[in-house]
Amino acid sequence: MFDAPADVEPHTAVETLLERHPELHLCAVVTAVDAQLLVPDLLGGETAFSAGLADSASDPRTLGDVLLRQIDFSDHVAVVRGAAPAAQVRVCRSLVTHLNPAASVVSHTNGEHPPTLFRGSFDFAAALHRVLPAFPPPPPSDPAEDEAAQTAVWRRFRPLHPGRFFEVLDEMTATSLRSRGRLWLAGRPDTMVVWEANGTSLSLEPGGPWTAALPTRTRHLVTGFRPPTTAFDSRPGTGDRCQHLAFTGLGLDTGRLFTLLDSCLLDPAEEREWEAAGPPPDDPFQPFFAHEHRPDG
């Protein structure tokens, strides 16, 4: 058993452990979550530094960021009941299942470890793919009718109007406990924009070029670092460009959320206009991409 420091990214801890001890066989990576604190920790916005999970006050991560990265990377999540009522434990287990459908959710009782932890083999490559915010895993394939948590996936194939989308950022981040995925902004047609949000935390950053924006001979350089997914099925004229956002939460108002997002898409007339004249020069997302490299200068 190896107890990784909470302030170290889980993939770094595992990678370092295996490099230093190649004779070891890693059976499982386990994250423990408190049934009473999971939802408050995701919503609270407490910084990683104030929670004792970072060495520097300049660390931009929140407690929710750290917790989600640990849940994403693990193949087992232990729900610690403590004094939580049964209903709260059920909500916690349901939420964990939606945050990481690949994980086995186990109960932590009296310090005992389920024997299944020692029978498997941890898949490091699959875990690395799970922590990529641009490529959220599919929702649970067979959720129960009374499932406490929900995951809704918004997927469209038209670009977003930067101005309209910027105006709804606050409302979007408030609709769910966690959202992540990739975006196609009309003002940046060749750049995959990576979206990740939880609680009060929002991250938007360039995620490299869309595969369709690259010469055919170099596309393998990008796809080799991205998880295998049917999301890269090419569409005539636009290739793999798309909107793909997964929202996980409790009591999601999917209809309202999707209507809001759909209103931000370019309509056909706007698409024709932007293709002919280009997007307006004002880009409200420029501060998010201040350090983005652009070939033209």
UniProtKB/TrEMBL annotation:
InterPro entries: CobW-like_C, Zn_Chap_cDPG_Synth
Residues covered by region (Disordered): 272-297
Domain CobW C-terminal: 149-265
UniProt protein name: G3E family GTPase
Organism field: Nocardiopsis metallicus
